[in-house]
Amino acid sequence: MLDPRLNPYRRDIAAKHLQGQVEAMHFVDGVVMEVIEPIADVRREPAHEAALDTQALKGERVTVYENSDEGWAWGQLESDGYVGYLSANALAPVGAAPTHRVCVPRTFGFPGPEIKLPPMIALPMSAGIDIVRETDRFALDAFNWHYPLAHVAPLYKHAPDFVAVAESFLSVPYLWGGKSSLGIDCSGLVQVALQQAGIAAQRDTYMQERTLGEQTSLGDLRRGDLIFWKGHVAIAIDATNIIHANAHHMMVFREPVTDAIARIKTSGSDVTSIKRIEKRSNP
Fold it and tell me: Residue 62 burial by CB count (10 A; 0-12/13-18/19+): exposed, middle or buried?
């Protein structure tokens, strides 16, 4: 059975490319749209009170298979293949492709070359921007909004250490389904940090455990290793400490790995695997 979180199908409608693989009343071609809000919530059902599964960030592409009269778009994110419901107001026809991404936890876009001006937008890490011009201090988009030059990076330029990226989120509040410095969950932290290092990662913990890295052991724990429990993941800072977004501390927290393993074990979960990710350098 295909995973419905990664394959756009329901009983009433499905993506046309899944015809013959799933059962549905209608099969349709999708329309590619662009996320224009800084953060767009992706929900499990078309309701604002529905569970938050993940978030899409500005500049991401979404293939939309259905638009409802209530203002919901049902579609699939291009970046990691996640399927869910977004507010249709967060989407627009595709414009110019992003050339840069935000490389700090959060940045502002100012209406001119002066940081004392009230910002026009606040963008989270990994949001995509089409930069058309640079000055010695700012990167400018097509709206002439000015982003601090040090806060954006060309898409081809990658962070050398994804653990350091994760550490920049220390004390950010825990938010189930979150992917920004306003709130983030354990697998969101891993995904965003790896993305900055040029390493693609799927969204949920079980997906990451299945697809990322090679198996290693706790006795050989190194910086950058991922430690998995059922429904949880942490990043090793070194042989004895980890960083993770967790509901116990309700934030991104650094702690000894032995403390985390003992605490999580009392809730009924043992470590299920430890994965080592191949390091990549900038091109």
Answer: buried
